[in-house]
Amino acid sequence: xxxxxxxxxxxxxxxxxxxxxxxxxxxxxxxxxxxxxxxxxxxxxxxxxxxxxxxxxxxxxxxxxxxxxxx
Length: 71
Known about the structure:
Blueprint: E1 6-11, E2 15-20, E3 33-39, E4 44-50, E5 54-57, E6 66-70
Antiparallel strand pairs: 1-2, 2-5, 3-4, 3-6
């Protein structure tokens, strides 16, 4: 399947709201997504699991660059 497209927007509490499109429908239904984030040093941390296609990730540092991935 294609990689999810992640759209992010800042929230007012030093967090980030991300959303993504569903993957290609070429297998079993997706029932849960695992969301992770990393700073530019590359250490990945788990943000959580969700059955939705969006998530708010709180407690990020203002002015810092983050990367997100959804599996």
